[in-house]
Specification:
38% of the residues lie in helices and 22% in strands. It contains 6 helices and 8 strands. It has helices at residues 12-28, 43-49, 70-77, 103-113, 134-151, 178-189; strands at 2-7, 33-38, 55-58, 61-65, 118-120, 124-130, 156-160, 163-168. The protein has a 4-stranded mixed sheet with strand order 2-1-3-4.
Length: 190
């Protein structure tokens, strides 16, 4: 299996990440080709990832950011369902003047989030959740509201009998930011 690890020199988290990849490979007896890329050697990567290293990718899918968990990686190597690392992040308020996500950055986050959510007109995320009754839909709505309050990032929620539609974008940038994808991943955990 080919994995890509974005690192920088003298980073203790990056060293731990490499060790975790090795540990997962040994425990699953999976041969891994690890392509380690120093973000400091490429101005575009340095601007894109800033201090968000280490990052571990399988193809275009981000598996881990900041911390590589050997046990979770081993599960992924065995084919177990893998939860997006986005769900472990915290929503960060966007500053005015920040550009909304577009192009490959948007596509990359969509791949990580999964197929259930869809980007509408490159502007907002949307997903409809189905339930057998109104009470289940209402419980889900309340749980989404609690996560939104905790993250201080609030989606539009349309509650109907048997369904809940969640729509979100970052109003200050009039488009999508990483926080929208983080909240979507947290909602998926519910």
């Amino acid at each position: 299996m080919e994995l890509t690890l974005y690192t920088r020199p003298n980073c203790h988290l990056c060293d731990k990440a490499k060790a975790a990849v090795g540990e997962a490979a040994v425990s699953t007896r999976t041969p891994i080709e690890l392509d380690e890329i120093n973000v400091d050697d490429d101005p575009e990567l340095k601007a894109r990832f800033t201090n968000d290293v280490p990052l571990l990718f399988h193809g275009h899918r981000e598996l881990f950011r900041h911390h590589v968990d050997a046990e979770q990686l081993a599960g992924y190597l065995r084919g177990q369902r893998f939860e997006s690392s986005l769900a472990s992040e915290t929503c960060i308020p966007a500053r005015r003047g920040t550009a909304p996500l577009k192009g490959s950055d948007l596509a990359e986050l969509m791949r990580e989030l999964g197929d259930e959510w869809r980007v509408v007109d490159g502007h907002h995320l949307e997903r409809e959740f189905k339930f057998p009754d109104f009470a289940g839909a209402l419980r889900f709505t309340n749980a989404v509201g609690a996560v939104a309050e905790e993250q201080n990032h609030h989606p539009d929620i349309l509650l109907k009998w048997g369904s809940v539609r969640v729509t979100m974008w970052t109003h200050t940038v009039d488009g999508l930011t990483r926080s929208d994808f983080i909240l979507a991943a947290k909602i998926d955990r519910i």
